């Protein structure tokens, strides 16, 4: 990585930008998911739109994938560099005395989310790609809800998803306000951002868990 | 080649410096590139000198024993820096600053130097602000001032309670600019162990790399010593642990006269000692005396009860308190000069009125200030009929804004909340007015060897006023030395690089190495600190705040004995070729053991009381210091001849043409 | 009090070090931590052993020289202080105390508990100054009014003593609080604006070259900082850097 992205602050900034992008994506994703609880039709329509609109499929989807990959790769790069910045470890290091568990373990919550994403892709995205572009099956605007319900029958999947969302919450609890700080946002509105971040970090993952549980118990 | 002439320019005092600058020889920019200057010490004096000389184009080599120039002990100065800007419009002027400084120094400083100091004081503030020093400002965005002891105007500029730190960081930033340009070569963690003279002129130094132990030779066309004072001769002082007199003492042994060593300032507001393990004393800024009132119990039985922990200060009624400074000195009250305040505290404690377990502490009380500020704030905020608690709370807020960091520091050390109970303070060794003798050019009696800042003797006489040390350090480094040194170096433009391969460097290096070898190989029994503490005790008890002939004579003998024992039985662990803090200390204490004796000898010689030097035999009827202008209006400059006891006294008579010699009165 | 000390001993930068156990007895709770170390060293010298090397100088919390990692925290368990201001009343009788040097690749150990922090100096040399010569005829100090708010903020940033506790307590050994404070001090003042772009770019470049880690906003530095330097300064540096990058 040369030029702008070789500097520590630019990398922080890039991490923050991709994070904010993913934060916004999560809102959209949850909104779509939540419709499944209220209306099978709306959910199917929305899903069909998302799955077939060329702008979303060939414009936003690649951007999202790149965003996710960038966020992860940069996260790893920074973690490796940061680990390397302390060649001899402390015998006694009391991180808990001055920082939160979430802030010190972003790499682990991140890795868990990555593992979840792999499962999630296998569960939904790969079959979708297979259906549309490999098998080339005819478009069916009514299949989404059923597929969703079907996925959440096995309890192990529900459990895995729920654990992943808890880790997502922990990741966000630090990540949300951290992204703002990285972008240089620290002023009298920061306490508002922190509060907003806290609510967001709890509500969004809770929403996902709710949808998961809902479909597990209501099929 | 030794010269002993103050070289003060002729003419009226107001014009001396300007005239001097108009007529000195200059070095042209192309030639400056070929001239090297060594600066030892990087506090306010050394740092500002190094930066300014490098800006001018000289090649500067700067040395400090710390890991960075910015850690020099100037950083610990809290209260502020004086300048005769008259921003407050309260009648200040260069003359008044000059007058206050000479008077505050009890008429033992050189008029011409002090006037010059006052003259450039304004420039210092301009310079520092331009560098980005964040001085305190008022709501209009202009600089704020406060007042300090011994003066009747507000002329002290400050940056919270960290003025020294901010000025030093300013200085260091100026140095950094030159280090980045390659004009200053910085030697951190290096200690100068001797000066090298070639043909009578200072031409270099021998330094030890404190990490590797390597002994290095460094040459230059001139050497500047800016290594601060020798307060650590008392072991316990407000100086940093590493503050030492080695550079100053080594140049003294090579021909630089040492002036007025007995003029040492005992600062009145320090945190009292708590036990034998104590390694240093912590200063509480004098600025606290602006708002704090100093008192002890008026009744001896109350004092006893307090000492035994049976009574609390807040339980003593107003009429049973003795605000002894306000009582004795109504005009200046709590803001009398430091020497007066310190002696008054000692007098009360000696009489049994001390207020901690050791009986060596007095109160510094802010309760009245809480009231005063609280009422003012209530008015400003339009609070009608405020309750007592409200007033105190508002007042505490103002005090916190002004001195918050000092209050916090006090609480951390003593574990008592000074917002609730009065602070305890006691005098401690702080600053040394005496030092290496220099002429008007700041040159010592060795040609090419300069001495600036606290390390020299020139500006403060027998007592220094608060917020004047920072002023002097920066004046010397920024605005005086860069001119005067050029005048000397103009003769050196054809000299070329000074070789370090001369017999003189050889000899100086050998001497240094031999001494180190002695320390390492001496199979002694006592640690270096053991001797340092012993010396400190003698100095404090017999050459401290009050001195007399008998004690001084005893002290000289005792110091000689300690020194003799030191050279037989000192133990230094480890070896030279490594980072060895015991070895560093050994060399420093060896020098203190000689300096201490000269100090006592000087105190014995000066049969008068003036400023920080108080001889019990010479007092007025009401116990104030009694100066003897007829016989002692001179600078005692001592020449080293092999032993401190055999030092030869040279007198520089002080002339007071612009100020009338008067008895100092703060009543 | 009687205490067990586990102290990092390392002969020099090239030799490997290890923790060594010592006992000290009769420690007064009024002692400062470094005075307790003095007691230990007196004991060691008496036994002809090498005393423990540690950095210290002013012993009043302002020079920034002292630098011990005590019981897993920079400057020990108390807040808002340096090691020299830490008092033994913070510990209890019989306690085992671990004492380690600052740990960071950019702060190599010189001996025992002494580390080389000159990386900080090089960062400041890269731009931590305002280019003004000593002349005696700069603008009158009151010629540049500065709002009290900005002056106070600049002072808060300038209060940094450069001890390195931020690096030591950061899990990433990041120096951003230090550099942020240095950048902020000048960025907040009109005098510093002229060179602001170059300054932040150069200082950050030097910081990266020294091998410090990257900030992940854990906030540990702010908690452990003896002078209470705020994270706000890192945010300000980030802003300054990003806008400078766009200009530069």
Describe this structure in words.
The complex is a heterotrimer of chains A (219), B (667) and C (248). Chain A is mainly α. Chain A is built from eight helices and no strands. Among the domains of chain B are: 269-429, no CATH class; 501-633, Up-down Bundle (Methane Monooxygenase Hydroxylase, Chain G, domain 1), CATH 1.20.58. In chain B, helix 3 links the parallel strand 1 and strand 2. In chain B, 61% of the residues are buried. Chain C is an alpha+beta fold and 248 residues long. Chain C has nine helices and seven strands; from the N terminus they run ββαβββββαααααααα. Chain C has helices spanning 33-46, 118-125, 148-158, 165-169, 176-187, 190-193, 196-209, 220-224, 232-247; strands at 3-9, 18-24, 68-70, 73-74, 96-101, 109-111, 114-115. In chain C, the strands form two sheets. A five-stranded mixed beta sheet of chain C has the order 2-1-5-3-4. Chain C has a two-stranded antiparallel ribbon with strand order 6-7. In chain C, helix 3 packs antiparallel against helix 5 (176-187), helix 5 (176-187) packs antiparallel against helix 7 and helix 7 packs across helix 9. Chain C is elongated, with a radius of gyration of 20 Å. Chain C starts with a strand and ends with a helix.
**Architecture (CATH level 2) name of the largest domain in chain C:** Orthogonal Bundle
Q: N- to C-terminal separation of chain C?
A: 59 Å
Which class of secondary structure composition applies to the elements of chain C?
alpha+beta
Q: What is the CATH homology-level superfamily of the largest domain in chain C?
A: Alpha-helical ferredoxin
What is Rg of chain A? 19 Å
> What is the level 1 CATH name of the largest domain in chain C?
Mainly Alpha
Largest sheet of chain A: none
How many strands of chain A?
A: 0
Residue runs with pLDDT of under 50 for 5 or more positions of chain C = none
- Total number of distinct structural domains of chain C: 2
Strand content of chain A: under 5%
Give the strand order of the largest sheet of chain C, numbering strands 1, 2, ... along the chain: 2-1-5-3-4
Supply the number of helical segments of chain C: 9
General form of chain A: globular
Number of domains of chain A: 1
What is the strand tally of chain C? 7
């Amino acid at each position: 990585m040369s030029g702008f992205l070789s500097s520590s602050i630019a990398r922080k900034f890039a991490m923050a930008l991709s994070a904010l992008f993913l934060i916004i994506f999560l809102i959209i994703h949850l909104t779509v998911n939540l419709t499944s609880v209220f209306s099978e039709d709306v959910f199917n329509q929305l899903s069909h739109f998302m799955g077939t609109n060329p702008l979303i499929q060939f414009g936003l989807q690649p951007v999202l994938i790149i965003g996710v990959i960038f966020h992860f790769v940069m996260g790893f790069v920074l973690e490796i560099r940061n680990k390397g910045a302390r060649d001899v470890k402390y015998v006694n290091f009391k991180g808990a005395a001055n920082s939160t568990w979430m802030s010190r373990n972003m790499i682990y919550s991140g890795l868990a989310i990555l593992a979840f994403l792999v499962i999630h892709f296998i569960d939904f995205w790969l079959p979708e790609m297979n259906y549309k572009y490999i098998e080339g099956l005819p478009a069916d605007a009514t299949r989404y809800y059923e597929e969703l319900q079907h996925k959440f029958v096995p309890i192990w999947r529900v459990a895995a998803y729920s654990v992943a969302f808890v880790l997502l919450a922990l990741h966000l609890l630090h990540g949300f306000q951290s992204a703002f700080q990285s972008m240089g946002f620290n002023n009298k509105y920061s306490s508002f951002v922190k509060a907003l971040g806290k609510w967001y970090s709890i509500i969004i993952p809770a929403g996902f868990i709710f949808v998961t549980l809902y479909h597990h118990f209501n099929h | 080649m030794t010269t002993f002439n103050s070289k003060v320019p002729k003419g009226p005092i107001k014009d001396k410096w300007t005239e001097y600058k108009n007529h000195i020889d200059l070095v042209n920019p192309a030639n400056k590139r070929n001239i090297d200057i060594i600066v030892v010490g990087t506090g306010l004096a050394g740092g500002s000198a190094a930066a300014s000389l490098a800006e001018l184009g000289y090649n500067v080599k700067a040395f400090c024993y710390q890991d960075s120039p910015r850690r020099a002990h100037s950083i610990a100065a809290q209260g502020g820096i004086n300048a005769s800007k008259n921003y407050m419009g309260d009648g200040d002027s260069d003359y008044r600053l000059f007058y206050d400084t000479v008077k505050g120094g009890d008429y033992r400083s050189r008029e011409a130097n002090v006037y010059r100091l006052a003259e450039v004081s304004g420039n210092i503030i301009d310079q520092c602000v331009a560098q980005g020093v964040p001085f305190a400002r008022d709501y209009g965005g202009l600089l704020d001032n406060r007042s300090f002891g011994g003066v009747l105007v507000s002329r002290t500029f400050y940056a919270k309670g960290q003025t020294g730190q901010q000025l030093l960081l300013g200085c260091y930033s100026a140095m950094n600019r030159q280090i980045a340009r390659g004009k200053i070569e910085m030697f951190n963690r290096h200690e100068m162990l001797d000066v090298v003279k070639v043909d009578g002129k200072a031409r270099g130094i021998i330094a030890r790399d404190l990490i590797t132990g390597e002994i290095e030779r460094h040459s230059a066309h001139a050497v500047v010593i800016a290594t601060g004072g020798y307060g650590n001769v008392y072991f316990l002082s407000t100086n940093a642990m590493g503050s030492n007199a080695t550079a100053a003492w080594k140049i003294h042994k090579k021909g630089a006269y040492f002036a007025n060593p007995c003029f040492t300032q005992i600062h009145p507001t320090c945190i009292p000692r708590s036990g034998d393990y104590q390694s240093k004393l912590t200063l509480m800024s004098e600025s606290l005396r602006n708002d704090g009132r100093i008192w002890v119990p008026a009744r001896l039985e109350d004092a006893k009860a307090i000492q035994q922990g049976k009574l609390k200060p807040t339980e003593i009624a107003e009429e049973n308190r003795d605000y002894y400074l306000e009582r004795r000195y109504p005009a200046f009250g709590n803001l009398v000069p430091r020497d007066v305040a310190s002696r008054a505290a000692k007098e009360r404690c000696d009489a049994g009125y001390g207020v901690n377990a050791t009986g060596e502490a007095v109160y510094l009380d802010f309760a009245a200030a809480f009231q005063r500020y609280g009422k003012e704030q209530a008015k400003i905020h339009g609070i009608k009929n405020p309750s007592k608690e409200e007033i105190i709370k508002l007042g505490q807020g103002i005090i916190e804004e002004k001195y918050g960091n000092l209050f916090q520091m006090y609480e951390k050390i003593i574990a008592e909340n000074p917002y609730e109970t009065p602070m305890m303070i006691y005098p401690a060794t702080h600053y040394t007015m005496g030092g290496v003798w220099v002429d008007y050019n700041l040159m010592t009696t060795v040609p090419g060897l300069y001495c600036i800042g606290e390390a020299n003797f020139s500006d403060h006489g027998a007592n220094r006023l608060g917020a004047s040390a920072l002023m002097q350090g920066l004046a010397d480094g920024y605005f005086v030395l860069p001119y005067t040194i050029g005048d000397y170096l103009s003769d050196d433009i054809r000299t070329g690089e000074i070789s370090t391969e001369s017999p003189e460097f050889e000899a100086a290096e050998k001497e240094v190495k031999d001494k180190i070898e002695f320390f390492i190989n001496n199979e002694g029994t006592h640690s270096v600190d053991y001797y340092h503490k012993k010396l400190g005790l003698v100095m404090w008890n017999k050459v401290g705040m009050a001195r007399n002939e008998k004690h001084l004579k005893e002290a000289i003998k005792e110091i000689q004995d300690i020194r003799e024992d030191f050279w037989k039985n000192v133990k230094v662990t480890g070896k030279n070729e490594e980072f060895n803090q015991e070895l560093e200390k050994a060399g420093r204490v060896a020098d203190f053991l000689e300096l201490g004796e000269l100090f006592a000898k000087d105190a014995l010689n000066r049969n008068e009381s003036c400023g920080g030097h108080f001889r019990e035999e010479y007092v007025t009827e009401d116990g104030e210091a009694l100066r003897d202008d007829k016989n002692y209006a001179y600078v005692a400059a001592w020449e080293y001849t092999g032993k401190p006891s055999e030092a030869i006294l040279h007198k520089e008579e002080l002339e007071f043409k612009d100020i009338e010699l008067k008895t100092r009165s703060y009543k | 009090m009687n205490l067990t000390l586990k102290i990092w001993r390392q002969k020099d930068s090239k030799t490997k070090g290890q923790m060594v156990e010592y006992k000290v007895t009769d420690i007064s709770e009024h002692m400062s931590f470094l005075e307790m170390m003095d007691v230990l060293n007196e004991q060691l010298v008496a036994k002809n052993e090498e005393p423990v090397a540690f950095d210290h100088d002013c012993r009043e919390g302002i020079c920034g020289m002292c630098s011990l990692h005590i019981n897993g925290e920079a400057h020990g368990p108390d807040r808002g202080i340096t090691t020299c201001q830490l008092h033994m009343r913070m510990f209890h009788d019989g306690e085992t105390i671990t004492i380690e040097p600052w740990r960071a690749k950019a702060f190599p150990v010189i001996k025992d508990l002494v580390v080389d922090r000159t990386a900080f100096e090089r960062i400041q040399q890269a731009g931590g100054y305002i280019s003004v010569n000593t002349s005696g005829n700069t603008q009158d100090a009151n010629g540049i009014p500065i709002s009290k708010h900005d002056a106070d903020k600049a002072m808060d940033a300038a209060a940094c003593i450069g001890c390195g506790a931020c690096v030591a307590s950061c899990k990433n050994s990041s120096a951003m609080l230090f550099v942020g404070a240095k950048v902020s001090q000048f960025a907040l003042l009109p005098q510093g604006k002229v060179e602001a772009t170059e300054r932040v770019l150069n200082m950050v470049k030097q910081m990266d070259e020294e091998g410090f880690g990257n900030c992940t906003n854990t906030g540990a530095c702010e908690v452990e900082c003896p002078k209470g330097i705020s994270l706000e300064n890192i945010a300000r540096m980030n802003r300054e850097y990003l806008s400078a990058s766009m200009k530069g």
